[in-house]
Q: What sequence folds into this?
């Protein structure tokens, strides 16, 4: 189901002219990381917002829709 949702968002983004998809994923969420990597997202090395636990931060991932 996750793959279908990612593809639907990607298709919509392309239709509205987006050039890049960007998302945040929690460290340690191996299932989400695998889903996003499988669908062409790459870790940017950037850290996102602080999680509610006050310790962990989100990791940012992107996927180019150009080319």
A:
């Amino acid at each position: 189901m996750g793959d279908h949702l990612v593809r639907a968002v990607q298709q919509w983004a392309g239709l509205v002219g987006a050039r890049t998809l960007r998302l945040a994923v929690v460290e340690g969420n191996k299932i989400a990381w695998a889903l996003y990597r499988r669908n062409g997202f790459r870790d940017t090395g950037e850290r996102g917002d602080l999680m509610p636990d006050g310790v962990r931060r989100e990791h940012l991932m992107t996927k180019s829709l150009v080319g």
Notes: The chain has a mean pLDDT of 95.
